[in-house]
Design brief:
The protein is built from 12 helices and no strands. With 258 residues, it is an all-alpha fold. It has a single domain, classed as Calcium-transporting ATPase, transmembrane domain, CATH 1.20.1110.10. α2 packs across α5, α5 runs antiparallel to α7 and α7 runs antiparallel to α9. The two termini are 34 Å apart.
């Protein structure tokens, strides 16, 4: 690989730049994968809860698709435009045998970031039901009717609103996650919230999409959503800082341990 570069440009600085670019691409792929995999946990847990606790799923299939094929796309691509992190060239060479999706990435995505998103999403789901006077036992009792689509209009609306809340919480958590994924160790406060404008473009676009499927009736029918109340929208504001704050604590712990 280096020989090809030397043949076209015998300036040694070119090799250094090429190595830095290669490391940057490797870092950005890991950022992309961490971001995408985290939301998969939040999408899986509602169906595990359905099987284990005999409750209706906190998401429906079309809502999962809008996350995977819609809201996650632009923020994930924005991570691919990140510049090389500080100190990239001071890192030792990566072993060729080291996989891209190693244990540290999977544990961070699935067992930390993903579980936080899943927990907040399920809390939002139960909170909506609780606000209408339904506890866990009553939710179990009406689950068969919900799954068979034989409920009355009131319960149908509450269920749609509850799943919409779960969906919106996942998207809100992913807003915090995209900043968390900008580095595996460096604090976002050192990187800066506004150093990559493409991330903000992705966030704005995803919320235009979310609001469209909630407020636009034809899309609402396709994605089985329902309008959210003011307090439910306000609740979404705390989700990004919760996830990002937890990740900042994790990074701080790892830095101090070194």
């Amino acid at each position: 690989e280096a020989a090809d570069i030397v043949l076209t440009d015998d300036n040694f600085a070119t090799i250094v730049v090429a190595i830095e670019q290669g490391r940057s691409v490797y870092q950005n792929i890991r950022k992309f994968m961490t971001y995408i995999l985290a939301s998969n946990v939040a999408e899986l847990v509602p169906f595990l809860a359905m099987v284990i606790f005999k409750i209706p799923p906190a998401l429906v299939i079309m809502q999962i698709l809008i996350v995977d094929l819609g809201t996650d796309i632009l923020p994930a691509l924005a991570l691919g435009t990140e510049r090389a992190e500080l100190g990239t060239m001071q890192l030792p060479p990566r072993a060729k045998s080291k996989p891209l999706l190693d244990r540290s990435l999977l544990l961070r995505a699935y067992c930390f970031l993903g579980l936080i998103e899943a927990a907040l999403g399920m809390l939002g789901f139960f909170w909506v039901w609780h606000s209408y006077g339904y506890d866990f036992n009553s939710l179990q009792s009406i689950a068969p009717a919900i799954l068979s689509h034989t409920t009355n209009p009131e319960i149908t609306f509450i269920y749609a609103q509850a799943t919409t809340m779960t969906l919106a919480i996942i998207v809100a958590c992913q807003d915090g996650n995209v900043f968390a994924c900008r580095s595996e160790q460096t604090s976002i406060f050192r990187i800066g919230f506004f150093s990559n404008p493409f991330i903000w473009l992705g966030i704005a676009t995803e919320w235009i999409l979310v609001i469209s499927i909630i407020e636009f009736l034809p899309l609402r029918q396709i994605f089985a959503t329902a309008p959210l109340t003011t307090w439910q929208w306000l609740l979404l504001l705390i989700c990004p800082p919760i996830l990002l704050g937890a990740e900042e604590l994790r990074k701080s712990f790892l830095r101090n341990r070194k």
